[in-house]
Amino acid sequence: MITTEMIRERLIESIRQSGYTQTELARRLGIKQSQISCYVHGKKLPALDTLANLCRILDADANYILCLD
Questions:
Q1: CA-CA distance, 16 to 5, in Å (whole number)?
Q2: Which band of pLDDT confidence, cut at 50, 70 and 90, is reported for residue 69?
Q3: DSSP characters for the chain?
Q4: Domains, the chain, ordered by start
Q5: Sign (positive/negative) of CA torsion 25, 29, 34, 40?
Q6: Whole-model pTM above 0.70?
Q7: How many Å apart are CA 57 and CA 69, to the nearest integer?
C-alpha cells in the first residue's frame, strides 16, 4: 500500500538531489516557500498541477515520486 509518508520521502529525496533550496523551488513554482516546507514536513501534499511542475523542475519521474514504479 502506498502511503503519503512514502510519497513525502521520495519528494524530499528528489528535492535534495536537485540541489535547489526550498526558496528557489518556491520562486520557480510561483508559490510561497512555506508551501514547500509543508510538503517536506508532511503537513500537506502538493496539488496535482504543482506536483507536475515540481517533477518537471526537479527532472523527476512522477511515477517514482508517487511510488508507482
A1: 16
A2: confident
A3: ---HHHHHHHHHHHHHHHT--HHHHHHHHTS-HHHHHHHHTTS-PPPHHHHHHHHHHHT--HHHHTT--
A4: 4-63 (1.10.260.40)
A5: negative
A6: yes
A7: 20
Q: Which pLDDT does position 12 carry in this prediction?
A: 95
Mean pLDDT score, 21-44? 95
Say how far apart CA 69 and CA 65 lie, in whole Å.
Answer: 9
DSSP state of 68: -
Q: How far from chain centre, in Å, is Cα 28? A: 13
Which whole number is the average pLDDT over 14-27?
A: 96
